[in-house]
Structures are given as C-alpha cells and as structure tokens.
UniProtKB/TrEMBL annotation:
Main location: nucleus
Name of the molecule in the record: U3 small nucleolar RNA-associated protein 15 homolog
Protein's cellular compartments: Nucleus, Nucleolus
Taxon lineage: Eukaryota, Metazoa, Chordata, Craniata, Vertebrata
InterPro entries: U3_snoRNA-assocProt_15_C, WD40/YVTN_repeat-like_dom_sf, WD40_repeat_CS, WD40_repeat_dom_sf, WD40_rpt
Pfam families, per the entry: UTP15_C, WD40
The protein's role, per its UniProt record: Ribosome biogenesis factor. Involved in nucleolar processing of pre-18S ribosomal RNA. Required for optimal pre-ribosomal RNA transcription by RNA polymerase I. Part of the small subunit (SSU) processome, first precursor of the small eukaryotic ribosomal subunit. During the assembly of the SSU processome in the nucleolus, many ribosome biogenesis factors, an RNA chaperone and ribosomal proteins associate with the nascent pre-rRNA and work in concert to generate RNA folding, modifications, rearrangements and cleavage as well as targeted degradation of pre-ribosomal RNA by the RNA exosome.
UniProt entry tagged with the keyword Disulfide bond: no
Gene Ontology CC: nucleolus
WD repeats (start-end): 118-159, 244-285
Keywords associated with the record: Nucleus, Repeat, rRNA processing, WD repeat
C-alpha cells in the first residue's frame, strides 16, 4: 500500500514588510514601562537640560519623573482642581502650569510652593508656555483670550481676545522672543507679536485645533485638528504646504525629534504616526492600547513617553548599542562549534547514514487518510483556519472534489454549518486564486440545499449575500471588458496612424527619387 501524501496547499506569494532605516531605528526601543497616573495625562514635557527629567500633568498634580524612574521624584500638588500644560523653561529651572481655577502658576523645580501666581483669566487655563527670552509667559484659556505675563513683576503685559472659542494649544518661537502662536476650537491658528495690539497672522485650519508646533527655524508651522495634520509656511503669509490625513480619529498631539527631520503625531485612534519632514510620508507607526492625549520625545530621542485617556503613562527607552567586542569574541567559538560539519560534502568512499524524518500530519490529513470526508471539511472550517489560512480550506475542498466526495461532505449539515459554509464561500469566491474551486462548491451547495430555501432566515440571508457578491463581481468583470475594448480600439487607432505615416514617407521618398531622375 502506498504511503499517504498530504494535501498540497497552494502557496501564494506575499508582499513582505519593507524594512527601511526608519523601521530599524524606531523599532530599537525596549518593551514599554507602564505607569498609572491619577487621571488622563493631558501634557508631557521634557526638561531641555540634563538629566532630561520630564513633567507629567494629570488630574490635580504635576509629577516629575527621572529618565529611568518609575516613581515620581517630585510632585507639585498645590492645585485645588485640575492642572494643565506643565511646561519647562529653556534652562529647565522653572516650570509653568495652568489650572482649572483660571490662574497660571510658576514653580521652581527645586521648590514646592509656587513662585508666582498670575490672575487674569476668568475660566480654566489650558495653554501655558515661556517665550524664548525666559522672562515672559504666554497663556490661553477657555475664556477665549490669550495673555502675556511678566515674570519679574508678576503682572499682565497684554491680553488678546480675538478667538471666538476655547484656546487649547499654543507654542512660542525660538527665533523671535516676541512671537507666540495659539490654536483654538474656533478652527483658527493665530500668530501674535508682543509688540502689537492684535494678531499678525490668522490661519484657518478647518477643524477645532488640538495642537500646534513651530519648526526650530520658525518658518514652518504644523497644526493638528480633526483627522488632519497641516503644514503651513509662515513666511509666505500662512500658505498651506501639505495636508496629511493618516489618522482615523482626532489628532491630539504633535512632536518633533531632536534633529527636526521626523514629525510625530498622536491620535484618539491609538496610533502614533511618524512622518519624514522632507516627503511628509509615514515612515513608521506605533500602536497603543487606548486613545492618546499627549506625546513627548526626549532631547536625544532616547525616550518616548505617551499619555493616554485611561491615565496610563507609556514609557519606551532606546536599547543600548552593543559595542563590547569581548562578548562577540566569546560567542564566536560556540557559533563555529554549532556550525561545524554543516557544509561538509560527502566523498565517494563515505557511507552516509540518513536519519528518518518523522512526518507529522495535520488533523485534516489524518481524517482524509481515514476517508472521513465530512469531518475533514469540518476541521478546515474552524474559524482560525478559515480567517487566517483560507488557502488550507480551499485546498481540502479541491482534494475532496478530486476524490469525488465533495458533494457527500457538503450534504447532511445543519443550519449552523450551512451558515458557516456560505459565509466562507461568499467572502472568498471573488478572490481570483480561490474562484475556480469555490464556484464549484457554491454550485453544489445550491443544488443540495435548494429544497430547504425559505425555512431558515439565517441561511436565506447568506444565500442573498452570495448572490450579491457574485453579481458585483460580474459587473466588475463587464466593466473591465469594456475598458479592455476601449484600450484595444485606441491601440488599433495608433497602429493605423503609424502605418499610414510610414506609407506616406515611403511614397514621398519614391516621388523625390523620380523627380531627381527626371532632372538628370
């Protein structure tokens, strides 16, 4: 008796993931560390000065974390209600934050109590930042206003009330100490100059603005709102350069890497997208457990910190580069020993002893070997196989058809099994690699279960889905044939024109030769 030959599953080529330098770079982070905060994390900001601690604003507290610490090394909790937008000054010595009460608090990183408290907003302050001269603070609140404050005198310099909705984001220029930008839920981004009494530039984003970001050069502005990330040229009066729509939900935060060559955006769709700032194409993405509210990258790109709506802080550290040559030298003998004899070619006088390879059969192969057709079909109709490896299901159906037992395997099934069969066929029949087999299967199912149509609403629904899928595929094929006909007509026209032009050239050449002969 000949040995049983397992079912041959048709192998289809798959497009492998494109491995780029960005992929390798952004994958070079360790398994993330999860830190639970007291509420949703609305702001993360890294200190610009070593050792690059970062401030996390959540609920009514501001926690300062060390680079590798999982517990806060300092806490500012002098807030009666929620705190917002804790931001470091450029030297890392002062920290400013807004509050639900409408005040702006200034803290010394080494102290506990606020150094200054600026009163003037009538509603919660969600935006706070330092101007690049280090002596002034700008703020924006839910009272539709933005203000500029003087740190030494603890007084308000100027206030702007040009927005018509909540001011929820802002940033300061690092090139010009008088320029800062605010974004509002009124769909606008406004650029202010402290030397003027009104905004210098207004940009219409088109959606409630959740985050704004200025490039280090000060010439390009990035705004995020809705599903869009838009890049504007400030020097050309706010001209739109590119509009990116790579997220499925609202984009909540933006960040640049240390070199300014990569732009990061976080969204409520649980993804962080990384763009190249030259082509503005997505070069990598991270997936997280829940919606993202805040995002920060350390000054040396060594740490990525993401804050989420459930109060979880996700911290990823870059893996250290292995530069120890001694450890590599120690591994080499073990590797050579392992590979020893792998490339040896037997000589003519050698006697080769082959080790018998034990063949492990799959469940459906064992059932087919025992001629249990119906059970073999049941084995490949299990959800994991149907969803992830449909080619195995189709290969078994093809084998049953070759044996002539496919009809008997499909017959005698209850409502649940017929529903499962029809679901698979309706979903996969339009795939070209499965169409020849599944069309035969669909014909057999229709013939077998035609008498019971109308007795089960579930089965009838699946039959209608199958009919709809086949009908759509036929329409697509007809449209493709029409397009092919048009293309054939075009190609035929081009060919005729070319032949005509060649004939004219030849005839012109003959007449010229005749005329020259006559002249002689």
């Amino acid at each position: 008796m000949a040995a049983y030959k397992p079912v041959v599953v048709q192998a289809c080529p798959k497009l492998g993931e494109r491995i780029t330098q960005d992929t390798l770079y952004w994958r070079g982070y360790k398994t993330p560390v999860q830190i639970k905060e007291f509420g949703a994390v609305n702001k993360i900001d890294f200190s610009p000065a070593p050792p690059y601690n970062y401030a996390v604003t959540a609920s009514s507290r501001i926690h300062i974390y060390g680079r590798y610490s999982q517990e806060p090394i300092k806490t500012f909790s002098r807030f009666r209600e929620a705190a917002y937008c804790a931001t470091y000054r450029d030297d890392g010595r002062l920290l400013a934050a807004g509050s639900e009460e409408g005040s702006v608090c200034l803290f010394d990183v080494g102290g506990k109590a606020p150094l200054r408290q600026f009163e003037g907003h009538t509603k919660p302050v969600h935006v706070v930042g330092f101007l690049s001269d280090k002596y002034r603070i700008f703020s924006g609140g839910d009272d539709y206003s933005s203000a500029l404050w003087d740190i030494p005198s603890a007084s308000e310099i100027i206030s702007y009330s040009e927005h018509t909705d909540y001011v929820r984001c802002g940033c300061a220029s690092k090139v010009n100490a008088d320029v800062f930008i605010t974004g509002s839920y009124d769909h606008t981004v406004k650029l202010f100059d402290a030397r003027t009494k009104s905004s210098v530039l207004t940009i219409e984003h088109g959606h409630p603005v959740e985050s704004v970001l200025l490039f280090p050069s000060g010439g390009l502005l990035v705004s995020a709102g809705g599903r869009y990330v838009k890049v504007w040229d400030v020097l050309k009066g706010g001209q739109l350069l590119v509009s990116l729509k790579n997220h499925h939900k609202t984009v909540t935060c933006l960040c640049l890497n240390s070199s300014g060559q990569r732009l990061l955006s976080g969204s409520l769709d649980r993804h962080v997208k990384i763009y190249s700032t030259t082509s503005y194409k997505v070069v990598h993405s991270f997936n997280y457990a829940t919606s993202i509210l805040s995002l920060a990258l350390s000054p040396e790109d060594e740490t990525i910190v993401v804050g989420m709506t459930n109060g979880v802080l996700n911290v990823k550290h870059r893996k250290p580069e292995e530069k120890n040559e001694n450890s590599q030298k120690k591994r080499q003998p073990a590797y050579r020993t392992y590979m020893k004899g792998r490339t040896y070619m037997p000589k003519q006088e050698d006697f080769c002893v082959s080790k018998p390879v034990k063949r492990v059969l799959r469940k459906y192969d064992k059932l087919l070997r025992s001629f249990e057709s119906s059970k073999a079909l049941d084995a490949v109709l299990e959800p994991p196989i149907m969803l992830h490896t449909p080619e195995v299901t189709v290969a078994v159906m093809q084998e049953l058809h070759r044996r002539g037992t496919l009809r008997s395997a499909l017959a005698g099934r209850d409502e649940k099994q017929v529903n499962l069969l029809l679901t698979f066929v309706a979903r996969r029949v339009i795939e070209p690699r499965f169409t020849p087999v599944l069309v035969t299967v669909a014909d057999m199912i229709t013939d077998i279960y035609h008498p019971v149509v109308g007795q089960s609403a579930v089965v009838d629904k699946q039959f209608l889905k199958l009919k709809e899928a086949v009908g759509k595929e036929i329409d697509y094929q007809e449209e493709l044939l029409e397009v092919l006909g048009m293309m054939d007509a075009l190609f035929a026209t081009f060919t005729k024109k070319r032949d005509t032009s060649l004939e004219e050239n030849k005839s012109n050449g003959v007449t010229e030769i005749i005329e020259t002969n006559r002249s002689y």
